[in-house]
Fold these 4 entries.
Entry 1:
Amino acid sequence: MGIVKANKGVKIVKGNEEQIESVLDGAQRSCNARTVSVKEVFEKAERAEKALARLGIPKTKRAGAIYRYCEGGAWAKSYKYAAGSTGITLKRNTLGWYLTGADRGNYYPGSGKFDAIRLSDAQNEIVMREVRRALSDSSSCRDAIDGIF
């Protein structure tokens, strides 16, 4: 179980499937179960891009966001040992999403999946501005939040 970092990252576009698979293979080399596929990498990149759009971050300001995903452990209580799972790290630059790393970790029963985007300070400020605007234009906090997310 190791950490595989792609030097500058592998751009997540059609035609780079073999390079993406190579990064995943490095982390999942001796595994019985592969928990992340090339298809999932594409799906997660699309999910992250949609999340940035929902947050109101313009395309020109999306570079620097980092997306991290890992499935987590088993849910059955009778399963008492740690299970291996693969995590991926994607980074958004000006040209799109890049797979910058994959790693393998042990997760115990009941540990949930990790599925999150880390925003830059400038991106956080854009989101906060949008939240403030929505709160001032809305009759309730719930309406404002639903309108943004």
Entry 2:
Amino acid sequence: MIQATLEEGAAILQTILPRMFIGMVLAGALFSMPEFRKVTALFERLARVANLKSGVPVAAFFADRYAALSILAEMRRRGAVSDREVMVCAVMGMFPMGIRSSLLVMGPLALSSLGAKYGLAYILLDLTSKLLVSLTGALAGRMYLEGGQVEVEFRMPVRESVIQSVRQFLRVAAVLIPSVFAVLLVVDAGMDRLPLNTAQLAILSAGAGSTIAGIGVAGSLVAKGVVSGETALLHLIVAQMLHRVVEGLRSSMPVNVSMFGASLGSRLTAVTFIAGEVACLVSLGILLISTSLSVL
């Protein structure tokens, strides 16, 4: 049984990994090309609508979350932006960060693991919800920020972006590969004969610790016919809500506090956590409506 499982897992990964690698590297190069700066210019205009002093921090979320936060921290240290503007920028940054994540990591992974239909649905749900939340952040900026202008410069060379993409692929593969083999071993051992909620729990458990692992497990279960694509999407969204709790405590809180101090760092973590959970709820609502209308 183990040999058959290993062969099955290898066959699945031979399909997933090459597509994912090519997609991540090409997207990484795309983000640093001069032509892509036309896209970031759109966020400069959106920043003016939201009364931000600069759209560069928001656009920088396309390149890297930590780079964007570093720019915001430096602008705040110089007194160029207020605490409120930092939080508005971080919420608005969810959409460009979601685009980058979808193109570099989650998109290639979801499409190759869940298939074209459900992989695309996962990406669209994620981007639509984050767009709505980011627009809400822009509206809050329009209402509560005073406006102004500060000159900020940020660029990431193509070579550096591609190298980051390769490193990201290796980190993703390190989580995905054991996840696929683990779930196939469990399925072949009899999960398909157990109550359905056991399989759903596997998605929740894996996804709460790592979204990458959750997608890998969900894709394997869908491929085996243990759960439907709609059920997999629903539990991936719920798992993402749980994962945000883990991510907030393990990553976001320490990073934000170290960059912005205990007071603003804690508030920024709370605001972005709430915004992320709202985005998940929006995704969940859209999915349930689409399923009830038989759109999926």
Entry 3:
Amino acid sequence: MVRIYSLTVKDADRFIDTLKNAGFSIEEGPHAVLLDQSELLSIKILKENSIRGYIVLHYITPYYKAELTSARTDKEYLESLIQIKHSGEKWRIPVEDITIIVLDDGELEEIIQKYVDDYPVPEGGSLVEEYRRRNPDYKVVSRVLVGRLLDEIP
């Protein structure tokens, strides 16, 4: 039986590591950088060479900070991106609840039901708030991808 969960996750990489530590394999699928500088990704969850579920992840990375600078020219904006790259910061913060499609896996459902985390950086909450303020329709971004993944399930 297919079940769909919506889960509040503040640190996508930590959630993925939690799945890996429980013996699941992760295959990152199609990925897109959207016009609002957020990103959309589908992830396949496997165990023992069997698909156990899918994740739809809509998130921001440190590069979103470039959107919040006072850059007035393309050159200033690109310089901001380069500074972020060389900062060594690496994280993915969901801007909406992640969607998890579970294909009959009690172990995966148990992890989902118990999972709690915090932002990977102190300013994580304020970055998400600012993203949502600037992009009030952010919740509709992942809906089509969830539908496409459901189409793949026999």
Entry 4:
Amino acid sequence: MTVKKESIDYFNIFIGLCLSGNPLFTSSGYFEVLLILFSIYLTAYYLKGVYFSINSFLLISICYSCLFFIQIFSFGTLNAVTYIGFIVKLYIGYVLFTSIKQFDTKFISVVRFLVVISIPFFLLNLAAPNLKFIIPSFSSFIYDIEQASIHIGIYNFMLDSSRNAGMFWEPGAFAGYIALALTFLFINKKSGKSYITKNLVLFSIGIITTMSTTGYIALTILIVFYFYLRNDIGVKRRALYVVLLPFLIFFIYTSFNKYDFLEEKIKQQYIQALDREDNWRLNRFGTLIMDWEYIKNRPLTGWGFHQSTRYQLNPSDAEIASGAGNGMSDFIAKTGIPSFFLFLFLVYKGARKKFTLTKLESITVIAIILVLLQGEGFLNFPVFLGLFFTPFLK
């Protein structure tokens, strides 16, 4: 593979990530147009690769098309744009995962670039928090009414904190993509120890600067997972894993009690949701409870992607849930429990087939993905939808 082709692969992954959470792309009003244009470009560029595993995409897209048909018949409305939008995002994820050789290692490199770029901006914002207000930004193109942050394209300065969001809409989103890169890093058994160590240190710094609760939990699990996968001690790996698990639980517990932003945030959100206090739906526990009402009413086929059906039980939920939520329960509420189990099954099969992991290791990968989905709605975007095609990675 030529250097030029590899560079284009990196560029395409970068654009895929931009379409998976960079507000300059996703909140610009041209998001749908950009998705279609990028999908056409990918098809033209990776023409042979697209057809190599096309059966996998056709099978999954047919499954979802049948689901959408049932939803249309059930609700009596045709919201074609939202259905087509999902298929296009699914297609972009498919092309990236199945047409780019060694996608996992190139994804790690792109995320590493984003972390390296973000650190100077994070430190600058930490040292001079008022400086961001005089930096030229694209915020006027992103926010129609109320400006939520100062976005300069490659970095997103949060108005209410110094947390590191990278180029994404929220620090938790950046932490999620870094954690996904770490997952790929650890499960690729061809990775050398020096390569892993350097990336682990950098990615850990990246997640720490996000100050994301979900990111911290995922990082802790990932580090224990790494020791399980890579230990050179004369103890059986399964036994070591069992020994380390209590320490993992203890570390998470003490972290919650030591760091206010972890302990207070979770306690406050839980109590607020439990007591149905004002704006209780605005936190992840609240949206989980809210989504459960939808899930138990339509557990098999869900409520669809369009707001008119997704929040049909209580239309005001649409505005309340905007920008907040639980990525797992939201996806289940939209597409049903069988759909989400299909996603988890394919991630599991990919871990077993592509990365030759054991059953326990593959289940751990599933657990990491589930933790990440508790924080953000990643399945609304191409990169995480690409995990459907993990068994067909090149």
